[in-house]
Amino acid sequence: MASLMTVRGDPTTGRTTTSWSNGLPASRSQVVDFVGCSYLGLDNHPAIIAGAIEAIEVHRSLQWSHARTRLNFDPLGELEDILSGIFCARVLAFSSGMLANLGAMPILASGQLTGGSKPLVVFDQSAQISLAYHKPVVAAETRVETIGHNDIDALEGLCRDNSVVVYVCDGVCSAGGYSPIKELRQLQERYGLFLYIDDSHGISIFGDRGEGFARPQFPHVLGERTIISASLSKGFGASGGVLMLGAADHEELFRRHSLPYAASMAPNLAAIGAAIASCKIHRSAELGQRQRRLKQRIDLFDRRVATAEQCNSFPIRTIAIGSETNAIAIAKGLLDCGFYTSVAVFPTPGMARIRVCITAEHEVRDIERLCDGILQKTTETTGKPYPLR
Length: 389
Ligand SMILES: Cc1ncc(COP(=O)(O)O)c(C=O)c1O
What we know:
Layout: E1 10-11, E2 16-18, E3 31-33, H1 46-59, H2 74-87, E4 90-94, H3 97-110, E5 120-124, H4 129-132, H5 135-139, E6 144-147, H6 152-161, E7 165-170, H7 181-191, E8 194-198, E9 226-231, E10 241-245, H8 248-257, H9 259-262, H10 269-282, H11 285-304, E11 316-322, H12 324-336, E12 339-340, E13 342-344, E14 352-357, H13 364-382
Parallel strand pairs: 3-12, 5-6, 5-7, 7-8, 8-9
Antiparallel strand pairs: 1-2, 2-3, 4-10, 9-10, 11-14, 13-14
The structure holds pyridoxal-5'-phosphate.
């Protein structure tokens, strides 16, 4: 996988990258990126770059060396207020999605969010690593179970047998697919299930203000039994992470006891300025235009290449190859043609897939050429036509 992994490059306009550190194929001066998750193409939006620069210039600082339990930049409070309006929840901002999850997991395990009773914490098997990584920390405090992906029956069984249950999952899954929020909400209503949903791949791309996939499926008041987390560095196009909370006492608890408040860095001023600028785009007509461009591009891909995700409206598509060796060979072949895709080999051996992230900024002709490349390279490598059976 050498030429596909840990690459260094220089972004140009749109989705192209130059100066590939592992060496570009001889005939190429640039590569089109289908790995990055900037689904609306906001990451190099001039207003977001300008917002980052302006925040540093106005406040003459990048980072304060203070714990957030002590002193916080004024604009961080402003950002949290604007995000609270967008997501209709009390929003706390962190310097990454990973840190938002890291701060939440021990608090979930402690029982402080579930009336003082330590819960059984159930992880979806496909929960992204920034959630799954914390299982040992949670297990040091309370019981942990992992169930199959979207296995609602197994979850219901655990809810029946245990008085306090927390379920941790992705809203839109980073490896394709999504969580059945309607069914999860039914379990919440029936058994008081506490839901912790990471919607990093869902925010911005859905909703009039980019509320995301998960948030609109909950009532106007999020309530005491749901937390939604998200990264601000994917569709949102900036940098950082958020927790959407539904109760004032939860906010107080997190501001006192969540680890990133006591240690590690707060979002820096560039990140805050960029995020405030992105919020302005989220509250303008441009958001809807970008969401529509994204949908057109997903539809175009789906008309040419069949995937298990074809019937959903999310921007992640996975090409089922099976053999790891073949998947790597196909991804290298696509790179030779100027398209950077990623190979997913986790969690099941022998079920390797090529992952394609579609964005609003991809040129139509690049998507068409990528699709032709996928069909051609798969046949050349495996000797069989795609889709492989
Ligand atoms: C579902 C999910 N949650 C959280 C993260 C981490 O976000 P960040 O990069 O902001 O730390 C990722 C990143 O890949 C992700 O896919």
